[in-house]
Design brief:
This protein is α/β, with parallel strands linked by helices. It has a single domain, classed as LmbE-like (Rossmann fold, 3-Layer(aba) Sandwich). The protein is 39% helix and 13% strand. The protein is built from 11 helices and 7 strands. The strands form 2 sheets. A 4-stranded mixed beta sheet has the order 4-5-7-6. A 3-stranded parallel beta sheet has the order 1-2-3, with helices on both faces. It is globular, with a radius of gyration of 18 Å. This is GlcNAc-PI de-N-acetylase.
Length: 274
């Protein structure tokens, strides 16, 4: 079960792993805390109801990745301001939700699906979005309630991210408010990463998943990440997005794993490797 805050988060962070597992015959379930209705988008999409648009995009992405099910917890998108945005009628902002109540909703799905593995985010929520931070809290609590044996934190190798931002600054003009230094505490430190999952064989599915989130390719005062990455030629896309990273807390020191299922009870040691 892959737990994400908003539609399109799965495309950027875990789509390759999802496609890989589905291709191996595993049942893959995508759970979204919100419909992402406060994301940036052009006005014509907002007039249609951005939440409904992004729900449809999530289902399209899930079909591409081979998911068996998509579920929404039903919370409102909190936005990315200093405080949760006002909720739509009948829905509470996810960042302000009671952790126990939200965890109970997720735990019910974990129990129903008899999930062996749950993905969440690192404690910083990647880049600090309040809904992402809440995914970390709620996901761990739900896994304890449901007895889910393995929790992986989807993240990005911070060392590679900072290196990439430095290189990009030579050829790309970031908007004036962009603070590259803020990423020094974002995502996961290399020393924390326990799983480095190769997904180059699934690059077409990952790129198609990203393309399914058309509403997030436009809007705002600068080019969106999805649009910029989606235009990369195939070889460059495989190089930049051919690996997905995870952290499993409490795992003994050892080689970085290449199989997301390597530490499931009964999994063989053959999945280990640098």
């Amino acid at each position: 079960m892959f737990f994400h805050a908003h539609p399109d988060d799965e495309a950027l962070l875990t789509a390759g792993t999802m496609a890989r597992l589905a291709g191996q015959g595993h049942r893959v379930v995508l759970v979204l805390a919100t419909a992402g209705e406060r994301g940036l988008a052009p006005e014509d999409l907002r007039e249609r109801g951005l939440g409904a648009v992004r729900r449809a995009e999530a289902h399209a992405s899930a079909r591409i990745l081979g998911c068996s099910r998509v579920a929404f917890l039903g919370y409102a998108d909190s936005g990315h301001g200093p405080a949760p945005a006002p909720a739509r009628a009948g829905a509470e902002p996810f960042a302000a939700a009671d952790v126990d109540e939200a965890a109970a909703r997720l735990a019910a799905l974990l129990t129903e699906e008899r999930a062996d593995l749950l993905t969440v985010y690192d404690p910083a929520g990647g880049y600090g979005h309040p809904d992402h931070v809440q995914v970390h809290r709620v996901g761990y609590r739900a896994a304890r309630l449901a007895g889910t044996p393995v929790v992986l934190e989807a993240t990005v190798d911070r060392t590679l991210l900072l290196r990439g931002l430095r290189a990009a600054s030579w050829i790309h003009r970031f908007p004036p408010h962009f603070d590259r230094d803020s990423f020094r505490q974002a995502y996961g430190a290399r020393a924390e990463i326990t799983h480095r999952v190769p997904v180059r064989r699934h690059w077409r599915a990952k790129r198609a998943s990203m393309s399914a989130h058309l509403s997030q390719a436009r809007g705002g005062d600068s080019e969106r990440t999805l649009a910029a990455l989606g235009r990369l030629p195939g070889p460059a896309f495989r190089q930049v997005l051919g690996t997905e990273w995870y952290i499993q807390r409490g795992l003994p020191a050892g080689p970085v794993l290449r199989d997301p299922l390597a530490t499931l009870p009964g999994a063989g040691a053959a999945a280990r490797g640098r």
